[in-house]
Amino acid sequence: MTRLYERQGAAHAAARKKLGRPLTLTEKILASHVRHLAAQAFERGTSYLTLQPDRVAMQDATAQMAILQFMQARRDTVAVPTTIHCDHLIQARVGVADDMKYALEANREVYDFLRSASARYGMGFWEPGAGIIHQVFLEQYAFPGGLIIGTDSHTPNAGGLGMLAIGVGGADAADVMSGLPWEVKCPKLIGVRLTGALNGWTSPKDVILKVCGLLTTKGGTNKIIEYFGPGTRSI
């Protein structure tokens, strides 16, 4: 994180000069994580970015195949900090104690593999019952200006702390863990200007739900939504 912050200023200045205009928050984060800034194009919805994420997070139901793919790279350790979170294979059926006992027995082989692979390749391992992946990541690993990928659809939850957190498939996670760049199409941006202030029982979640209703389920695909304006002060 310290190294990222140390190089951010120069990366932002170079990107502003390259694009000939000020940068949005998204563009600042992307510029700080591209592998070769001088050669990188930033045409929204067209160019492909070659990025170097800061971290990888995986949950127990998707980590297995990603680790098997990573093992084919024959590395001694992961190239970037990586964590595995055992939460998805625990079903809420009867009660905490019984559900945990059942999950530990039914998924023993999976947990043993993930635990041993974590120790072998230098990954952090969050035991069953240690927390839900997207909440643990928000509380323990998220930081402003960072870029992380996770094999979980709720990964963007960490974006609430001013970072880019994006859900990916296991193959992308395996590439990044192996030291390869993450290639993704340069996202389009949707700007939402907020005015006024939240009041009563309203919360930032209400703003999100309203925007989702306007955009529909497909309106944000391959796009990043940024909020700005005087209304942001109340959220």
What report would you give on this structure?
It is built from eight helices and nine strands. The protein has a five-stranded parallel β-sheet. Helices cover 38% and strands 17% of the residues. It folds into three domains: 2-48; 55-181, 2-Layer Sandwich (Aconitase, domain 3), CATH 3.30.499; 188-234, Aconitase, Domain 2 (3-Layer(aba) Sandwich). Helix 1 (2-19) packs across helix 2 and helix 3 packs across helix 7. The chain starts with a helix and ends in a 7-residue tail after the last strand. By secondary structure, the chain is of the alpha/beta class.
Q: What are the main properties of this structure?
A:
235 residues, Aconitase, domain 3, 3 domains, 5-stranded parallel sheet, 8 helices, 9 strands, 17% strand, globular
Tell me the layout of helices and strands:
Blueprint: H1 2-19, H2 25-31, E1 48-51, E2 55-59, H3 60-71, E3 82-85, H4 96-106, H5 108-121, E4 124-126, H6 133-140, E5 147-150, E6 164-167, H7 170-177, E7 182-185, E8 188-193, H8 204-215, E9 223-228
Parallel strand pairs: 2-3, 2-5, 3-4, 5-6, 8-9
Antiparallel strand pairs: 1-7
Helix pairs in contact: 1-2, 3-5, 3-7
Q: What structural class is derived from the secondary structure elements? A: alpha/beta
Distance between the termini: 26 Å
Strands, count: 9
The succession of helices and strands, N to C, reads HHEEHEHHEHEEHEEHE
Q: What is the CATH class designation of the largest domain?
A: Alpha Beta
Shape: globular
Rounded average pLDDT: 94
Give the count of helical stretches.
8
- Helix coverage percent of residues? 25-40%
Described by strand count, sense and barrel closure, the largest sheet is: 5 strands, parallel
> What is the CATH T-level topology of the largest domain?
Aconitase, domain 3
Beta-strand content bin: 15-25%
CATH superfamily of the largest domain: Aconitase, domain 3
Which blocks of ≥5 consecutive residues have pLDDT under 50?
A: none
Gyration radius over CA: 19 Å
Count of domain modules: 3
CATH architecture of the largest domain: 2-Layer Sandwich
Strands of the largest sheet, in order across it? 4-3-2-5-6
